[in-house]
Amino acid sequence: MSRIGKQPITVPAGVKVDISGQLITVTGKKGKLVRTIQPEIEVVYEGNVINIINKTEGKTVNAFRGLTRSLVNNMVVGVEEGFKKVLVIEGVGYKANVVGNNLTLNVGYSSPVEFTVPSAVTASIEGNNKVVLESIDKELLGLIAAKIRQVRKPEPYKGKGIRYEGEHIVRKVGKSGSKK
Asked: Which UniProt keywords apply (predicted)?
């Protein structure tokens, strides 16, 4: 049985939840999110609490129950507070620039890498080496952050590349360090 799926979701005062069949719409001060729920799952909204209930029993249905609860909770938190991810660019001469919704990355390639950020995600630069991404959709934010990180993954010898803030890169000893 899913332990996460059993937990109720409390809805804050400024958030409006609309459920019509398998479509759930959450509206708040930051925006509006819409998601279609699995047909085996039922979402019940009473007062200011959302409960996720299985229509049938089974191992996969229980897994979907926990997933659905997490997705709906992320929708509620997203429209109320929003989500934020910070990417750190490390390396000599590595930098980023944002113009509109275009992110330009100079990360050691012969030409700059152009990356178009979707309109639902806002990108900004802190200093010369931090890219701050903000959105109300946690799933889209994580996907965009992962795609930006893919442009130049951190390498294990000097740590150069794009990494998440707080991410620990396991360092390797180079050739000269291993002979001692």
From this structure: Ribonucleoprotein, Ribosomal protein, RNA-binding, rRNA-binding
